[in-house]
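Encode chain A's predicted structure.
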Amino acid sequence: MSKPRIWISNASPKAGELVRVRALVEHRMESGLRQGADGKEIPRNIIKVFQATLDGEPLFTWNPETAISQNPYIEFTFVASRSGQLQMSWTDDAGTTITGQTSLTLAG
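Encoded structure for chain A:
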């Protein structure tokens, strides 16, 4: 899996400004409902939890279900209240966690 692609609308927002975050992660998303070439069921392995934090403080948590698409794209907004590291993590059924981060610095 490659590093997630993260885009924020403004890396230097003013306090109280709305910030839009867009992120895309590459993940195959096996539903557990398909059979492999050998006829055996391919085990389920989807992203089961997405979390976004600003310096460790939770901003957004999402628990996708089986119908999630391959290479999921997520978009959310939050109100900028302080500077810090915006960190996102995607954890799948196999226990693999993919992380990405970017800095946010309040202007003036």
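The mean pLDDT is 94.
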